[in-house]
Amino acid sequence: MSVTTNEQGLKASGQEFDPWGNVRAGAVPETTLDYTGQRRDSTGLLYYNARYYDPVSGHFISADTVVPDPTNPQQFNRYSYALNNPVHNTDPDGHCTETGKGDDYCHPSYGNGGGGGGSVESWTDDILSIDDGVGDVYYRSYEVEIAGSKYSQNEYFDLMRNHFGAFANGDTSVFKTNGTALNRGDRIDITGMGLPVGVYVGDISNNSFTLYTAKGHVEAGAIRFSVNTNSAGNLVVRIDSEARAANGAAHNIYDWSFVSGPGRAAQTGVWTNFLSNAVRLSGGRYANISAEGKAVGPLAAKITTSTARTPSYRIAPSKQMLNALSK
């Protein structure tokens, strides 16, 4: 709500807004100041100093030139307002989200990363965010449902966080951790298929954590691992990734490889192996599995137009993997 008072301190006019800044009720204000103290012009847009905001769409009309915390997935969308949470957050200058507690995301205080990972000032400089990459963006998800696990959801998530290598390591790739629980700022070095690369541990919650690609990786982006419990009481282990080619040199090969070539098969092999290990380590049994992907960008659009193929696809797990899951 925005209220204007007169010289006696009595209400002269007022407006009520929805969380995104659209006027719900009220008279025309007697001031140019509007939602969250910003100025609304004749186009209906709100001026936030650094850029204009459209309350109808709930987005800024131009991309943010500042990404204070590249490890926060909400900041991958340079057009979003208040980290897509206007109920609790505001964005007073078009760059810096502030919370209802007075904290801001322009000067975050993260402390040190665990396991010798160093401070956020050092390791975040080594991250390749999705905006650092080029070409089409690829969204992929892999999910397995586990029945009869001997662990609760929290116990199982702790197991995954404490022994990530046991889940991730396979015939084609090895994930080298520091041997302790994953902590924010930890680096994981990966070897496999002749391409040594690295990732950093970013956001960690009570049921998920996210890894971000490091410089030198063929991809730029992030991958999230989560553990939940469904209505049947079964554990659900899910992997969600968002990535694109890290640079122009890898662009054409990467896009071809992941739309129709061996890259998709290689990724599928690594993460379905992860899910196979997830079932084995749970002490339970495989109940269901799903995997799918989607490509977004010029190449995906070209493929759809020229060949009537869709850039969205479902990934079929191998017979060997299904056999392993069923044991």
Write structural notes for this entry.
The structure is a single chain. The protein is of the alpha+beta class and 327 residues long. The protein contains seven helices and 20 strands. The radius of gyration is 23 Å and the shape is globular. 30% of the residues are buried.
Strand-helix topology:
Layout: E1 2-5, E2 11-17, E3 23-26, E4 39-40, E5 46-47, E6 52-54, E7 59-60, E8 89-90, E9 98-99, E10 112-113, E11 118-119, H1 120-123, E12 134-147, H2 153-162, H3 164-168, E13 174-176, E14 187-191, E15 197-204, E16 208-213, E17 219-229, E18 235-245, H4 248-259, H5 262-282, E19 285-296, H6 298-307, E20 312-314, H7 319-326
Antiparallel strand pairs: 1-2, 2-3, 4-5, 5-6, 6-7, 8-9, 10-11, 12-18, 12-19, 13-14, 14-15, 15-16, 16-17, 17-18, 19-20
Helix pairs in contact: 4-5, 5-7
How would you state the average pLDDT, rounded?
A: 73
CATH homologous superfamily identity of the largest domain: START domain
Order of strands in the sheet with the most strands?
13-14-15-16-17-18-12-19-20
* CATH domain fold name of the largest domain: Alpha-D-Glucose-1,6-Bisphosphate, Chain A, domain 4
